[in-house]
Each structure stands twice: as C-alpha cells, then as structure tokens.
Amino acid sequence: MNSITATVRASALAERLEQGAQALAELANGLTDAQWQTRIPGDGRPVGVVVHHAASMYPIEMQFAQLLASGQPIAGVSWDDVHAINATHARENAAVTKAAALDLLRRNSAAAADGIRALSDAQLDRAAPISLNADAPLTCQFFLEDHPVRHSFHHLARIRAALHG
After folding, report:
1. 119 phi/psi in degrees, rounded to 5
2. Which pLDDT value is given to residue 26?
3. If pLDDT is split at 50, 70 and 90, which confidence band does 61 have?
4. Where are the alpha helices (DSSP H) in the chain?
5. CA separation for the pair 157, 162 (Å, rounded)
6. Which residue would you say has higher pLDDT here, 73 or 165?
7. Three-state secondary structure call for residue 137
8. Distance, CA of 141 to chain centre
C-alpha cells in the first residue's frame, strides 16, 4: 500500500519503524567480521544474530498487531515464550551472514511498514488484553510502538553499547 492512502498516524508509525530498521542496517553494514561476532553483554547473543533476530521478529509482531487491530486479545503468550523463541533463533542462526541478515531486515521491515500503513485510525485505537503486559487492555498503536517500531532502536542501542561501551 502506498503512503498516500495511509492515515497520517499510520504513516508516521511506519516511517519511525523504517528509520529504526535503516539505522540498524547502516550500523550492521559497516561492521567488521569481528564486530559481527561480538557478544552483547547481558544478552550473550552475537551482534549478527541480534540483527537477524530483529528482522525475523517483524512478521510475528505484525501478526499480533493485526489481532489487536481486529479487537482480539494477544492471549497465552508469556515472556518465557519470548525468551524460548529468542534462544531457539540464536541456536538456529548462529552462523548467519551479514548479507542474509541485512536482506531479511530490508524485506521484513518493508512488509511491516506496509502493514502499518494499511491500518486505519480506528484499528490503531482498538484495545484488547495483551498477555505480555499483564493482560492490560492496550491499543494496537501502543503495541506497534512498543514492539515493531521500537525493536530495531532497542537493539541498535545495545549493539552500540557493546561495540563502543
């Protein structure tokens, strides 16, 4: 969907997601092989795995956002589930290449931005319980801001701290 038909709010959210993904891609693209393998303190995953992780989570996060946009809750998902998904991803993608991670980041962030642009203001305003947030009834917009929009920025900051901290 092009941004001309998107609402102002949806376009702004999508643009922020794209900015985070682009900033993460720019940083990752300039990393040496040694930096790509640097482990994130407190996390333990290598930088490259974390870049690929950020890219791989967009489809899941957008599925959850679509649930909220339709007024359905995000139920039965715990932080233990998220940690298990992350651990499995790290094991299965330990040897991920920079090219593969950046390609996935480009494709999945573009699809996520398109998905956000397709949402109406009414869908962004819909609230339903989110199990990850103690079943608080939160809006689709909040979920988008707290998950797919924030995700690249969150990992970008942690990668910068690991490399320069």
Report:
1. -85, 140
2. 98
3. very high
4. 8-29, 33-36, 47-69, 79-92, 98-117, 121-125, 140-144, 150-164
5. 9
6. 73
7. strand
8. 14
Q: Measuring CA to CA, which residue among 2, 5, 11 is closest to residue 141?
A: 11
**10 CB neighbour count, 10 Å cutoff:** 24
Encoded amino acid at 51, one letter = V
Strand 136-139 with 127-130, pairing: antiparallel
Length in residues, the chain:
165
Give the integer Cα–Cα distance in Å for 131 and 77: 6
**DSSP assignment, residue 145?**
I
The residue whose two tokens read 């891609």 is 25
**Tokens standing for residue 96:** 């991920």
The values of phi and psi at residue 130, to 5°, are -125, 115
Contacting residues for 10 by C-beta, under 8 A, at least 6 apart: 116, 117, 118, 119, 120, 121, 124
| CA pair distance 64, 77, nearest whole angstrom | 10
The pLDDT tens digits of the residues spanning 108-149 come to 999 999 999 999 999 999 999 999 999 999 999 999 999 999
How far separated are the first and last CA of the chain, in Å rounded?
40
